[in-house]
Amino acid sequence: MSKSFKASTTRVLPVIYNPSAGQRHGRRLSSVLAALEQLGWRVELRTTAGPGDAERLALEALASGVVRLAVAGGDGTVHEVVNGLAASGITNAGPQIGIIPLGTANVLAAEIGLPRTAAGIAACLVEGGIREVRLGEVRFGNSGQRYFILMAGVGFDAEVVARVSSDLKRRLGKGAYVWESLRLAFRYAYPAFSVVRDGKVETAHAIIAARSSRYGGHYLLTPAAGLSAPKLQACLFTRRGPMAVLSYGAALLAGKLFRRSDLKVIAFDELRVTSPIGQPVQADGDSIGMTPVSVSLSEHRVRLTVPA
């Protein structure tokens, strides 16, 4: 059980740590913590006890007046932290959030250009600059909302996220998603989604609403997206079937996905996926609910620690 937070003082860095994400990267965490100590900082480790616990710890940090905070985990752990801060109702405040990437894909680390060495990560945590990031928001009708900092999606990738097990991710890392994608490619139904934007209805077999330009790690999804971009970008995948999945995947690995004629990229303020109902929705690599949904930029912002 984690101890309660104390208000941050000079040279003390509270760290919200997800041990499930960190099982494959324990050496990295130890090295970063040692580098922080060499820089003269004392770490207060707050360990999550299960799914959703990082939200609680983020709220505790906010309530106790912490001004600088680190998240040691994957993109899903950061997702929980920003949702905890957003749940407070404060739209433009809260602690400065740094990351120690321990997850499977670590898209956020790639997006901000976080150094890969322990010394570089530690230096960024305590000497980096601040970037204010406006969160994306997924609304589920009258049943609530979730916020995202990287992307939200429906279709094949959301189905993979919903089905891949935590145990497989711990054992195979990114390979877990490759395995599940190959397993599902010839079994998935590839439904046609109705997408409503600015009163117009379009059809796509998968949609990714991107805040981040990257996907699945350092791979470029669309250069039009970005954490500081004024709009979200919708990537509409218009082909269906297992060969389309393999072709899209190869293009992503080659950095050419956004150039394809069968991928439509559009800027938007609000987008609704109205049908079919009951299809999985993912945000920041975590399964968060089912369609129908609306996606937009939120008024909630977080202060992210980035390389100086």
UniProtKB/TrEMBL annotation:
Sorted keywords for this record are: ATP-binding, Kinase, Lipid biosynthesis, Lipid metabolism, Magnesium, Metal-binding, Nucleotide-binding, Phospholipid biosynthesis, Phospholipid metabolism, Transferase
Q: Which cofactor does it need?
A: Mg(2+)
May I ask which residue range the UniProt record assigns to the signal sequence?
Answer: none
* Molecular function in Gene Ontology: ATP binding; kinase activity; metal ion binding
Domain annotation DAGKc: ranges: 8-142
* Gene Ontology cellular component list: plasma membrane
Q: Which PROSITE patterns match?
A: DAGK
Question: Per the UniProt entry, what are the Gene Ontology biological process annotations, in alphabetical order?
Answer: phospholipid biosynthetic process
UniProt keyword annotation of Hydrolase present: no
For this protein, the record's NCBIfam families field holds: YegS/Rv2252/BmrU family lipid kinase
Which protein, by its recorded name, is this?
Answer: YegS/Rv2252/BmrU family lipid kinase
Please name the source species: Limibacillus halophilus
